[in-house]
Task: inverse folding
């Protein structure tokens, strides 16, 4: 999937939905950004942790998997808008036929994948229906 | 700034070219364009080549130098060569660099080429290389594939505007019909809506026949200052606009995922530069990497109202003989999509049409043509407008 340090350096964001916020304009960023897209050099960026609730903007059921995800196909991938504003791409766990645009979801800690039998196991955030 | 003309063009055959290497196909396209323009190697001031991922597809970087060398432009002539990369928009950007080089007066005769050799790796590795055009850390590591990203665009377009899978399929059916008339096309077979809908699902709602293929191919253009173009050819085709725009690398960060704002802005800049409107354009080559991408493109370029791209396509308005023929070459879907070559191939098709040399797929009386080339899921868009008269 990736090199160990490349995944490890973002563990806070991948495990705990840690992003950033610009105190100048109030926009929240996930994935984290170090430069505010509105205020640029005059932005005031600081860490911000998201609650992990939001709704599905769009989704797909992926049959031909990405490299490293072959064992999981078919899997649901979605663009989710967090309640604090930003959107992200994540898998949604649960029956594909129940998933719909506008559905409320919440984040959960899950295994994402692994590098073969002896390689690193990747953990991170997926989403489930909010009331599940 | 100087006006710029295209004086020579050439495409190789597009397809799975097992017996040919990257350098073989680029040299064929480059030499073909130079012969078409009737210029000599000594006259060439500089060379730009669009290539997305030589590193992943053939484990070769330094593509500019390689191509200049095997085109016979290095050892004695030392012609400068620059590789340009913007994922699937690499070719369009190579053309844009070439136009700016001539327009600025820095160079006179310039070759803009594009090439990709994609079948020296297996389809899984090719897909992984293509996925590098999206955000690897925040899309790819979540399990996103390219068809998956465009499937999410399609899903929301269907939900919001009522676009149907049948309308998406009509894009593929029409582009195969055009590819059937194009001698270089990868797929010349005719297909039906039912065949598209019954082909295997890649990322719901996109079937395999909603997707452009993996292709080997190369294309090249020769550019010159408009003032001297008639020295080389009786049918120079003129550049009326070159425009480019950026958007967020990740689809999820866009203002609206059913609109490619980079396309909208690049088109606005191009229309403004050319002093033209969408209704002035006679034909357009758009970036149909997936069927939904053509629907969004014709909306975002101003050829259909937002949300009506599917209906317009199903009505036949984008077919040859329709109101605005789209992808007369067969598009990425049927002509093939060697990613670095595509933006140049689009321009070769428009030049061929404006010269009146497109044979059975000729758009009668075409005066103005447009190309639209996209990188990734819409983080880069390049739009060019061409004309028959200066």
Result:
């Amino acid at each position: 999937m990736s090199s160990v340090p490349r995944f490890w350096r973002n563990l806070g964001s991948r495990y705990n939905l840690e992003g950033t916020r610009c105190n100048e304009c109030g926009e929240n960023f996930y994935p984290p950004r170090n430069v505010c897209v509105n205020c640029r050099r005059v932005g005031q960026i600081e860490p911000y942790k998201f609650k992990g609730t939001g709704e599905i903007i769009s989704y797909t059921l992926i049959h031909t998997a990405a490299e490293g995800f072959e064992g999981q196909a078919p899997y649901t991938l979605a663009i989710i808008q967090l309640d604090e504003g930003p959107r992200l791409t994540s898998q949604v766990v649960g029956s594909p036929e129940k998933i719909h645009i506008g559905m409320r979801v919440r984040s959960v800690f899950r295994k994402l994948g692994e590098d073969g039998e002896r390689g690193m196991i990747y953990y991170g955030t997926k989403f489930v229906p909010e009331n599940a | 700034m100087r006006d710029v003309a295209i004086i020579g063009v050439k495409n190789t055959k597009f397809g799975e070219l097992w017996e040919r290497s990257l350098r073989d196909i680029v040299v064929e396209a480059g030499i073909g364009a130079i012969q078409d323009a009737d210029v000599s190697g000594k006259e060439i001031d500089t060379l730009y080549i669009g290539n997305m991922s030589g590193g992943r597809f053939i484990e070769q970087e330094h593509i500019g130098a390689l191509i200049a060398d095997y085109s016979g432009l290095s050892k004695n002539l030392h012609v400068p060569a620059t590789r340009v990369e913007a994922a699937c928009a690499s070719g369009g950007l190579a053309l844009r660099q070439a136009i700016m080089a001539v327009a600025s007066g820095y160079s006179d005769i310039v070759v803009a080429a594009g090439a990709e050799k994609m079948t020296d790796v297996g389809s899984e590795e090719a897909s992984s290389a293509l996925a590098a055009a999206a955000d690897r850390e925040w899309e790819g590591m979540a399990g996103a594939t390219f068809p998956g990203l465009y499937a999410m665009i399609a899903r929301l377009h269907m939900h919001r505007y009522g676009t149907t899978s049948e309308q998406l399929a009509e894009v593929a059916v029409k582009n195969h019909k055009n590819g059937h008339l194009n001698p270089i096309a990868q797929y010349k077979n005719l297909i039906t809506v039912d065949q598209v809908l019954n082909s295997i699902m890649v990322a719901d709602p996109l079937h395999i026949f909603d997707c452009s293929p993996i292709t080997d191919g190369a294309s090249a253009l020769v550019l010159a200052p408009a003032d001297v173009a008639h020295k080389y050819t009786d049918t120079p085709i003129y550049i009326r606009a070159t425009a480019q725009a950026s958007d967020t690398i990740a689809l999820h960060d866009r203002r609206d995922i059913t609109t490619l704002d980079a396309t909208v802005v690049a088109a606005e800049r191009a229309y403004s530069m050319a002093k033209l409107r969408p209704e002035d354009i006679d034909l357009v080559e758009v970036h149909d990497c997936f069927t939904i991408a053509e629907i969004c493109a014709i909306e975002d370029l101003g050829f259909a109202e937002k949300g009506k791209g599917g209906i317009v396509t199903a009505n036949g308005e984008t077919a040859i003989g329709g109101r605005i023929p789209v992808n007369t070459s067969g598009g990425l879907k049927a002509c093939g999509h060697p990613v670095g070559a595509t933006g140049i191939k689009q321009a070769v098709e428009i030049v061929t049409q404006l010269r009146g040399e497109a044979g059975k797929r000729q758009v009668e009386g075409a005066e103005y043509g447009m190309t639209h080339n996209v990188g990734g899921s819409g983080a880069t868009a390049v739009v060019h407008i061409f004309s028959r008269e200066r």
Notes: The radius of gyration of chain B is 19 Å. The interface with chain A takes residues 124-125, 127-128, 131, 136-145, 147-148, 151-153, 155-156, 159, 200-206, 250-253, 257 of chain B (CB under 8 Å). The domain at 4-122+215-237 of chain B is CATH 3.40.47.10 (Peroxisomal Thiolase; Chain A, domain 1). The longest strand of chain B covers residues 237-246.
